[in-house]
Amino acid sequence: MTDFQSEKARLIMALRGMGVGETEVLAAMEQVPREQFVPPALRDHAYENASLPIAMEQTISQPYIVARMTAALQLTGRERVLEIGTGSGYQAAILSFLCRRVYSIERLRPLLVEAETRFRQLKITNVTTKVGDGAKGWPEGAPFDRIILTCAPPSIPVTLLKQLKTGGIMVAPEGRDRTQNLVVVHRTEDGFEKQDILPVKFVPLIEG
Ligand code: SAH
After folding, report:
1. What count of other Cβ atoms lies within 10 Å of the Cβ of residue 46?
2. Three-state SS for 42?
């Protein structure tokens, strides 16, 4: 039986070495068994710092990017967070340890069914999910303290910006295939302040 503890510890140390200093984020990543979120054939690669294919031509993000995006959200434990692109559920599981409730939208039902099974197995009860077009957000739940996109729109949909609270933070990959940037948007009294963080490569957000 493989026990991934040492692989996991090595990955966490590597992330620290790459400049991820947020202890709470690393602790949350230590809590979540990434091997349960990847296809069985790829379990042995679960603790490499790499994105991996999941079902239906989608991917589970690279741990370093998960760490950076999670850190950028500056969670205190009290937030309601909207995620667009549940995928395997890995990012949502990390968030579940750091905020009050995660609302996660996925357009591909089979992926969502698998993600929900994982949440149940891990006794994660503060993630609410639905199938739908994340570009429309979750109007019944809005406004949100934080919003995270794990699929890339050409530019951030205004509908989503409107669902962010004043004082809230959004993290998203933005741009077309070859030229995506991870952006952090702070909503202030005066409007939106946007910063580019680093170049990334996410699967596209597909509308409708
Ligand atoms: N957060 C995921 C990453 C999944 S990849 C994880 O940790 O595994 C991005 C996901 O976004 C894919 O599953 C894709 O189906 C989904 N997606 C793409 N466009 C979408 C849309 N408009 N609404 C909701 N989900 C979308």
Report:
1. 23
2. helix
The pair of structure tokens assigned to 52 is 């991996």
Residue 60 Cα: closest atom of ligand 1: 8
Give the pair of three-digit tokens for residue 173.
């990959």
CB 109 within 8 A of CB 175: no
Active site residues: 61
Residue whose CA is at the smallest distance from ligand 1 atom 4: 87
Residues in the ligand 1 pocket, defined by CB under 6 Å = 58-61, 84-85, 87-88, 90-91, 105-108, 111, 133-135, 150-151, 203, 205-207
DSSP secondary structure letters along 84-139: E--TTSHHHHHHHTTSSEEEEEES-HHHHHHHHHHHHHTT--SEEEEES-GGG--T
Q: Would you mind telling me the total number of residues written for the chain in this entry?
A: 208
pLDDT tens-digit series, residues 115-172: 999 999 999 999 999 999 999 999 999 999 999 999 999 999 999 999 999 999 999 9
Which tokens in the block code for residue 2?
């493989």
Query: What pLDDT digit, counting tens, does each position of 88-131 carry?
Result: 999 999 999 999 999 999 999 999 999 999 999 999 999 999 99
Q: What is the pTM of this model?
A: 0.98
Task: Pick the residue whose CA is nearest to atom 26 on ligand 1.
Answer: 85
CB count within 10 Å of CB 82 equals 27
pLDDT in tens, 64-91: 999 999 999 999 999 999 999 999 999 9
Gap from CA of 18 to ligand 1 centroid (Å): 26
